[in-house]
């Protein structure tokens, strides 16, 4: 089968939003080349770990980010390019900088497409306890506390290494004690649902806006036996969802978090946690004020680069 690669050159802050746009148009997977990821590599203490790495020899973006998506031959890409371009440019309405927002397409054969994933993705320890492992890599935990999240980047929105995802994972490590009920809103690759199960959550329900995202998440869930009982379905945020959850997690844009706040409040019991990420610095205060206005108590804010995560809790009468 032949594939078409569609690449959007944008900013680091727009990576998650652009990835979501491409996946909703039928992309089989996305590849992210973000200059900030290479800055972290450059700051790594490789010599102390016995490794010799010249980061500058690795091909990478010099500024901003490039999000590349892969479409099968069953999708006529020229037809969807104008709509994708318009949606990417419209992200400025949500306060995201997207320039230059250029869109380019290239034909790719199946062999090269498959090889591309394996060239760029390797196991990465994303938090103290959680390590993301590409499905083709053989990797053994380095300690009894290390938990693996197996992903196929060819199916996913990302590999779990983006700051917004890391913030979500760190927050989940903070609040999970074991046996909880959790809802993952905007599940994407399913990485947060898998992490929740690895950290001991009992029941997990995962939702995303359309069936393309749901199918992508399900394939990754299937790669992780611990997540075999996760229920994933298409849904618009938490509209129509019933049944309480002890933890609700959402790694989505700040503007989408806003209408989610009252929905989460209604489904959380007293002392339940509402974990949000995907919040750009300029929007953080708006999200925090909206959550406090709803009645949430802000337990902690987390920051990584230009991104924020918020851990909020529904207080009881004595709090």
Classified by CATH, the class of the largest domain is Alpha Beta
Structural category = alpha/beta
**Strand neighbour order, sheet with most strands:** 10-9-8-11-12-14-13
pLDDT averaged over residues = 85
Percent of residues in helices comes to 25-40%
**Cα-atom radius of gyration:** 19 Å
Q: Which blocks of ≥5 consecutive residues have pLDDT under 50?
A: 42-55
Number of domains: 2
- Beta content comes to 25-35%
Largest sheet: 7 strands, mixed
The CATH homology group name of the largest domain = Vaccinia Virus protein VP39
- Give the tally of β-strands: 14
- Overall spatial form: globular
CATH topological fold name of the largest domain: Rossmann fold
Q: What is the ordering of alpha helices and beta strands? A: EHEHEHEHEEEHEHEHEEHEHEE
Q: In words, what does this structure look like?
A:
- Helices cover 32% and strands 27% of the residues.
- The chain is α/β, with parallel strands linked by helices.
- It folds into two domains: 2-120, Alpha-Beta Plaits (2-Layer Sandwich), CATH 3.30.70; 152-313, 3-Layer(aba) Sandwich (Rossmann fold), CATH 3.40.50.150.
- The chain has a seven-stranded mixed beta sheet, sandwiched between helices. It has a four-stranded antiparallel beta sheet with strand order 2-3-1-4. Strands 5-6-7 form a three-stranded mixed beta sheet.
- A hairpin with a 4-residue loop joins strand 5 (124-125) and strand 6.
- Helix 5 (163-175) packs parallel to helix 6 (191-198) and helix 8 (254-267) runs parallel beside helix 9.
- The radius of gyration is 19 Å and the shape is globular.
- The chain starts with a strand and ends in a 6-residue tail after the last strand.
């Amino acid at each position: 089968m032949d594939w078409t690669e569609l690449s959007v050159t944008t900013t680091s802050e727009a990576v998650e939003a652009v990835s979501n746009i491409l996946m909703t148009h039928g992309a089989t997977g996305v590849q992210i080349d973000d200059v900030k990821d290479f800055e972290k590599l450059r700051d790594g203490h490789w010599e102390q770990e016995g490794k010799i790495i010249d980061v500058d020899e690795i091909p990478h973006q010099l500024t901003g980010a490039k999000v590349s998506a892969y479409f099968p031959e069953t999708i006529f890409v020229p037809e969807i390019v104008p709509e994708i371009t318009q949606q990417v440019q419209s992200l400025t309405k949500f306060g995201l900088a997207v320039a230059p927002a250029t869109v380019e397409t290239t034909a790719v054969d199946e062999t090269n497409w498959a090889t591309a994933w394996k060239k760029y993705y390797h196991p990465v320890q994303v938090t103290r306890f959680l390590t993301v492992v590409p499905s083709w890599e053989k990797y053994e935990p380095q300690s009894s506390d290390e938990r693996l999240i197996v992903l196929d980047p060819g199916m996913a929105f990302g590999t779990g290494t983006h700051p917004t995802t890391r913030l979500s994972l760190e927050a989940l490590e903070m609040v999970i004690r074991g046996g909880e009920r959790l809802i993952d809103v905007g599940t994407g690759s399913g990485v947060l649902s898998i992490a929740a199960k690895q950290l001991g959550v009992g029941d997990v329900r995962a939702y995303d806006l359309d069936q393309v995202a749901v199918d992508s998440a399900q394939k990754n869930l299937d790669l992780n036996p611990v997540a075999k009982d996760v229920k994933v379905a298409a849904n618009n945020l938490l509209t129509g969802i019933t049944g309480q959850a002890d933890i609700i997690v959402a790694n989505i844009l700040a503007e989408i978090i806003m209408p989610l706040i009252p929905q989460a409040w209604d489904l959380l019991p007293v002392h339940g946690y509402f974990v949000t990420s995907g919040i750009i610095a300029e929007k953080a205060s708006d999200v925090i004020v909206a959550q406090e206005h709803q009645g949430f108590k802000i337990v902690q804010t987390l920051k990584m680069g230009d991104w924020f995560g918020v851990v909020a809790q529904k207080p009881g009468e004595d709090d």
